[in-house]
Amino acid sequence: MCPFAGYPFFVMDFSVVRHDLDCAARSAVLSTVHGTVDTPAFMPVGTLGTVKGIAPDELRGLGFELMLSNAYHLYLRPGHHAIREQGGLHQFTGWNGSILTDSGGFQLISLAALRTITDEGIVFQSHLDGSTHHLTPELCMEIQMALGADIMMALDECPTPSCSKEQARAAVARTTQWAKRCVLASRGRHQALFGIVQGALDVDLRRQSARELVEVGFDGYAIGGLSLGESKPALFAMVEASVDELPCSHPRYLMGVGLPEDLVEGVMRGMDLFDCVMPSRHGRTGCLFTNRGRIVIKQAQYAKDESPIDEQCGCDVCRKYSRAYLRHLFVSNEMLGVRFNTIHNLWYYRTLMAEMRSAIQGGEFLAFRRRFYQQRRDCVRSRAYVRLMEDGHRCRPVDVSQGKDC
Ligand SMILES: [Zn+2]
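# zinc ion complex -> structure
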């Protein structure tokens, strides 16, 4: 229960508990009227108000306090007015933890057809039925207000990483203008609002975008427009440039970036919140996260494997079921297999974040990071992703030509 829940004008509280002395990692407590969240934290993605296959009580049981939903999708179906009439997203879905809603800027780039972006807003055709809509910053706030999100995201223009410098510059300017309009729009008295840093893959534009948003003033700051196919060094260079300009006193959210390695690298660079569809989407395709890297459960090598997915995992699935059984469920297209895979993956993410928080509080985050990678040394999938300098804050590409996949 949030200690501030009875305060009529409470919006959100963010208190840093501990800074790591050797890097930018920090642990903190974020409070909304729906509860407290220990950070760094991972938000499972319930795009349509549900993390696929997982009931709200199960999600709480897995240790999650904050879920992400998507304003764009819920606006199109069932519609924000319909959800408001049902008492808001918490009431509608039965999820009593905190909810952050994404504004839709990213989805409009990735899903909607025939977009036209002007200073006024974004005209687009629904990916569901082709109907035409005009999303303005004001409508974006109206949607998220109707949903009753604890944390709302300002509307941003999310350019592709391959855009020209001029396009990136225009997107930053528009994102700042829209951010100002979002701040001026009305919202519920308990609803926090985060701005989203843009700037494509340009360090100077990232810094400029962050500075402009801080000047506008938000309850927290997100870094958006990443994990769109750019290299890992480019991604984390953008994170570092943005973080340099953001206040230590406010939460920082790295949007849509979510392999385990990304989370470790993001935390080390001072990020507090993460979201990604990866644990649930990979669960549905039988790709399972372990402390030694990922395994693909459908592979024949697991047909007679009596061991759990991960010997170190404490989830219900690993305590009770073998890889052989999970493989059988997966290749037989049993629903239970998808659920078990998703539960394990979410537990892995939750545990990874808890371990990182504990390492920060113990003043040994960099030692934790070394152990994290040492366990993955024989696994090309992870190793190929980034090679990390053992004691540095930067990452660089790795040669993927050698080593054993896992
Ligand atoms: Zn497990």
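# post-check
Confidence is low (pLDDT under 50) at residues 388-406.
The chain has two domains: 42-276, 283-396.
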